[in-house]
Specification:
The protein is mainly β and about 850 residues long. The protein has a 22-stranded antiparallel β-barrel. Strands 10-15-16-13-14 form a 5-stranded mixed beta sheet. Its main location: membrane. This is TonB-dependent receptor.
């Protein structure tokens, strides 16, 4: 669908929905009984300015009126003084007051929720943020929308303990404190260590991070192991995302954005009752942007955005003790991309004729750009990255005794249709790289949380996850006519045999069926009013059954043993089957002590595990033999210790500190090898990894006009012991293919990262509309980090600082308009560096977006406001 068509459809659909609900509201408003009257004025409690459009309603009846441009209202009713009124408007705290005289003046306070009253569900029940003995970062839906964060990739600039790297949707690394997923290219045979939950449903594949945020209420980022609270074991942390539920009071939200680089985004949501106990919500999002890289080979831009998403929900409340939510969503992304420019060239330890510059000189090729930041690329293979995610879930909450029994049943599907140019050059080296995949998952969770006795509360649950992942129908890797010169490893004339590697490739078919079962519990024992002990226990059972079959095809058909040996040095047939299972117990022990109402401290020790991994990206060889013992990767064993303190220096401020250390045995990592047949790398175990750090975060609201937030993270992540790691790119071709990198830094982790944000508000009017002007800005900084699993002096990304800003007006009638900019200073920086397959010396850079800017118009409407 063309960009303009999507834009027009989105806007028209959004406006029709809003108009229909406005009409519905007018029809539903009954006529009052005329008898008595009340006159009054509603003003801002701080500025004393009159407020227009305020809803003034008689409590217990439907009769309501709105204030005029001078803040004045008048009631004509059959009731007599005193009146009980409900006074409300968007952006202000709702007041319930008793009025005993006419005229009267009513003051409304701008909405500024006390920070210590923020409610989270991190422990599977609603409680105040500062009472939870877990380090949690909260991002409200409104903050996400104002920051232009429409997926997790943009969220990392708000939460410095989150690391996300992506060269496309499948090859995505989502980490918390440097742990969670393997860095670099993704292997389907590994489980993530960071749980990704959408309305209680665990989403297993890393591509879930590309799911567009559609009508999100709140995101909680939980740091550290959470296995005794969540269904799927999460050894590094969890994203707990909750969307806005259907409402029985009609409401509609419409948002349209337009920016540079052809950016267009339209979002809408509508909610209201269908029957007495049945409400619905429908939400839509569409995002488009032109490509920001120019492919000189095809004379067109790529790396664009072309996203569509829909989410629908039904809320049924047959009784006050039962709540059922049926939801379904689908998200489709079809970008023309992704591609990467050569960011640099390393001289390896191979012979001079095997160096990258010598190779392309012999082929008469020259890169058509000097820097990747020219945003030019030269790719002779189309880049494609079609990504589709969706699913259906049924959640039931039933209040029983002093708690709630929850059942969550879900099915989700992911399909991935890519095509990549893996040599990053306009030469026919690797001409096809297509890892088409399809994934289905089914999950069921039963959980009870609440009071067990006067002094004991907690959560107990059962969880099951069944996954079926495989090729769709086949993964294909293929070389072209220039490949011989890159692969040439001797001066033999046989390398120049015509057609030897032309269209030579592999077709791989594999399937992985996984079963994960768990029983878990965590108890909160109130020893005294100040001291709580929180033990947790978890039983895991994991089973993986995989079949892998890779067959070569193409190239020169020959029986010459010497030529066959050259071909076998590139690709070989590989076949294996794995049927493995394991069970274990894990758990944690925490203590929480509240010194006084303003200081709450906690300590945690936990043990957790991440299941076995299976290599389905190709296995390395030694002396012509496939290393089948590497097909299975050992599970991780995690030991975690943490101390923290949560404080409220004032009612409207928070200051939290945490100190932690995580030790991992048999750390699962993705490593690169010079072998073309393993061009996505393979999974391996590092003997021991340690991550330790300190985190400080705080928020403060000053009056109703200034909000500030800040977070600082120090993370020291190292290989304590990794004695058999592949050599870094610059050491390829040396006397050894493996080396001891013990003491080296983990990839993707900055030692220092911080964020600082603020927003200033000032009451005012815009074309006669009451509201407030605002100016907001967010700074994000991270120090340099390694972009290679084996530390390399060349594959490091320099430190950078980003500035995002917004300026606009929020009207009390629900209308908002603001201009925004991301990367305001137009900083050039890399998100990731990727060594090309075969380790010939060139490496590519995932270039981050340049400065973007635009304008957003938003309208939030709710019946009665």
């Amino acid at each position: 669908m063309k960009k303009n068509a999507i834009f027009r459809i989105s806007v028209i659909f959004s406006l029709l929905l809003a108009a229909s609900y406005q009409t519905y509201a007018q029809v539903e408003n009954p006529k009052p009984i005329i008898n008595a009257s009340l006159t009054g004025t509603v003003v801002d409690a701080v500025t004393k300015e009159p407020l227009q459009g305020v809803t003034v309603q008689l409590e217990a009846v439907t009769h309501q009126v709105k204030t005029d441009s001078k803040g004045v209202f008048q009631f004509v009713t059959g009731q007599k003084l005193p009146f009980s009124l409900i006074v409300s408007i968007v952006g202000y705290q709702t007041r319930r007051i008793v009025v005993d005289q006419s005229p009267t003046v009513i003051e409304l306070t701008p909405r500024l929720e006390a920070l210590d009253q923020v409610v989270v569900t991190a422990r599977r029940r609603k409680e105040q943020l500062q009472d939870v003995p877990i380090p949690v970062s909260i991002i409200r839906g409104a903050a996400l929308e104002d920051a232009g964060a429409f997926n997790v990739n943009r969220l990392k600039e708000l939460v410095p303990t989150v690391q996300l790297y992506s060269s496309n949707a499948r090859n995505t690394t989502l980490n918390i404190r440097g742990l969670g997923s393997t860095y670099g290219l993704t292997n389907d045979g590994i489980d993530p260590g960071v749980g990704f939950y959408l309305d209680g449903v665990y989403i297993a594949r890393p591509a879930a991070t590309w799911l567009d945020f559609i009508d999100i209420d709140q995101i909680e980022v939980l740091r550290g192991p959470q296995g005794t609270l969540f269904g799927k074991n999460t050894t590094a942390g969890a994203f707990n995302i909750t969307s806005r539920l259907p409402q029985f009071t009609p409401e509609a939200n419409v948002e349209v954005s337009y920016g540079n680089q052809g950016f267009i985004q339209a979002k809408t949501s509508i909610s209201g009752p269908l029957a007495k106990n049945l409400a619905a919500r429908a939400s839509f999002s569409g995002t488009q942007r032109d490509g920001n890289l120019f492919n000189v080979h095809t004379n067109r831009k790529i790396n664009d955005i072309n996203n569509l998403g829909f989410r629908g929900q039904l809320l049924f409340t047959p009784t006050e003790n039962i709540k059922l939510v049926l939801s379904g969503d689908v998200s489709s992304q079809k970008p023309d991309g992704y591609g990467w420019a050569v960011a640099g060239v390393v001289n390896t330890q191979r012979a001079d004729y095997r160096q990258f510059d010598a190779i392309i000189k012999d082929l008469g090729y020259e890169l058509p750009y000097k820097s990747a930041f020219e945003r030019k690329i030269d790719l002779d293979t189309q880049s494609k990255a079609d990504n589709k995610l969706g699913g259906v879930a049924l959640n039931a909450d039933v209040k029983i005794g002093g708690g709630t029994l929850t059942s969550t049943s879900a099915w989700r599907k992911w399909t991935w249709v890519p095509l990549n140019d893996r040599d990053y050059l306009g030469l026919p080296v690797y001409t096809v790289s297509a890892g088409n995949s399809v994934h289905n998952q089914w999950s069921q969770e039963f959980r009870y949380s609440g009071k067990i006795s006067e002094k004991v509360s907690g959560v107990v649950g059962l969880f099951g996850l069944w996954q079926d992942l495989g090729t769709d129908p086949v993964h294909t890797e293929e070389t072209g006519s220039a490949f011989w010169r890159f692969q040439k490893s001797s001066t033999s004339a046989l390398w120049e045999t015509p057609g030897l590697f032309d269209n030579f490739g592999i077709k791989t078919v594999y399937g992985i069926k996984s079963t994960s079962l768990a029983a878990y519990t965590q108890i909160d024992w109130e020893v005294t009013s100040k001291l709580h002990i929180l033990p947790g226990l978890r039983y895991n059972y994991d089973k993986k059954k995989a079949n892998y079959d890779r067959q070569t095809y193409g190239g020169l058909q020959t029986s010459d043993p010497a030529l066959l040996a050259l071909k076998n040095g590139v690709y070989t047939n590989q076949t294996f089957d794995i049927n493995a299972d394991a069970d274990n117990f894990s758990g944690q022990l925490s203590a929480k002590y509240r010194f006084n109402p303003k200081i709450n401290a906690y300590a945690t020790y936990s043990i957790s595990y991440k299941p076995i991994g299976i290599n389905v990206g190709g296995l390395p060889t030694a002396n012509g033999a496939v290393l089948l013992d590497l097909a299975e990767v050992k599970p991780e064993a995690v030991r975690h210790k943490e101390l923290g303190v949560k404080t409220n220096p004032t009612r409207n401020s928070i200051l939290n500190l945490s100190v932690y250390q995580t030790d991992i045995k048999d750390y699962q990592t993705q490593v690169q090898t010079p072998e073309p047949g393993v061009n996505r790398g393979y999974l391996a175990n590092a003997e021991k990894v340690r991550v330790k750090g300190v985190e400080l975060d705080g928020n403060i609201n000053i009056g109703h006009f200034l909000r500030l937030n800040a977070a600082l993270a120090y993370t020291d992540a190292k290989y304590v012991k990794f004695t058999n790691a592949p050599v870094p790119l610059e050491e390829v071709g040396g006397p050894q293919a493996f080396k001891d990198i013990s003491g080296g830094v983990l990839p993707g982790v900055s030692k220092w990262s911080w964020s600082l944000g603020g927003e200033v508000n000032q009451s005012g009017k815009l074309i006669g509309i009451n509201g407030s002007y605002f100016l907001g800005a967010d700074l994000f900084h991270r120090s340099k980090f390694s972009s290679s699993s084996s530390p390399s002096q060349y594959l490091n990304i320099d430190a950078y600082t980003l500035l995002n800003a917004r300026l606009g007006f929020r009207g009390s009638n629900g209308v908002s308009v603001f201009v925004w900019s991301r990367n305001l200073t137009n900083k050039d920086y890399y998100e990731q560096l990727l060594a090309a397959p075969g380790s010939y010396g060139q490496y590519a850079g995932v270039v981050a977006d340049p400065r973007t800017y635009g304008v957003t118009l938003r309208y939030n409407w709710k019946q009665g406001n």
